[in-house]
Amino acid sequence: MKKLPKSATLFAILFIFLLICFVADILFGAVKIPLSEIIYPQNATFYEIIYNFRLPKALTACVVGAAISLSGLIMQTLFRNPLAGPYVLGVSSGASLGVALFLMAGTVFPFFAQQQMFGMVFSAAIGAISILFLILLVSARIKSSVSLLIIGLMFGQIASSLVSILQNYSNPDALKLFIVWTFGSLSAVTWEQTKILFPLIGAGILLIILLQKSLDGLLIGENYARTLGIRLQRTRILIIVATVLLAGVTTAFTGPIAFLGVAVPHIARGLFGTSKHKIIIWGTLLCGAILLILCDLASQISADGYTLPINAISALVGAPLIIWIILKNRKRSVN
Question: Which of 186, 276, 305, 315 is deepest in the core (most CB within 10 A)?
Answer without folding.
Answer: 186
